[in-house]
Amino acid sequence: MTLPYLSDYRVLVVPGLHGSGPEHWQSRWERLYPGFQRVVQDDWSQPDLTRWAQRMTEVLSESDQPTLIVAHSFGCLTTMQAASHGRFDLAGALLVAPADPEKFGVDDILRDARLPCPSIVIGSSNDPWMASNRAAYWADIWGCGFLSAGALGHINAESNLGDWEQGLRQLQTLLDMVHPSCN
């Protein structure tokens, strides 16, 4: 899928626990779009919001190019923590299958988090990490749009989504929201 105007942005891929393996849609998108940059954590097995957000802040600070974020699971929580507490040129964020902040004991920390850009939360009706109604609740708290993608589990490699065309269409929707020439 060709995404017009994508080259006008730096795209950061922000995985969740275990770093999104090779068959995860995030990894597949990185192969489709080699310009995408992954935020790499020191320890993918330890979901430490403070450390992960610090690492993301470091990566965000490396460029002044407008940035689109494509986050998954705990990466969504990392995005909310890092992006809402820094001054970065964020153009938009696609937050897919966020992990429930309550499961990680960070709900109080993230309750006041906001993104300074258009954003879309995508949830799944059978996600074991956060029920769709909870994802919609958090999207509302964070000031994001919400889309239920149906029954896709945790929207990860186990969901067998391949390149996840529905997600690419939502990335295009986000591009349409942030790029003035798209409308």
Automatic annotation (TrEMBL):
Highest taxon of source: Bacteria
Question: Per the record's keyword annotation, is Transferase included, yes or no?
Answer: no
Query: Which molecular function GO terms apply here?
Result: hydrolase activity
Provide the alphabetized UniProt keywords.
Hydrolase
Q: What is this protein called?
A: Alpha/beta hydrolase
Q: Which organism is it from?
A: Herminiimonas contaminans
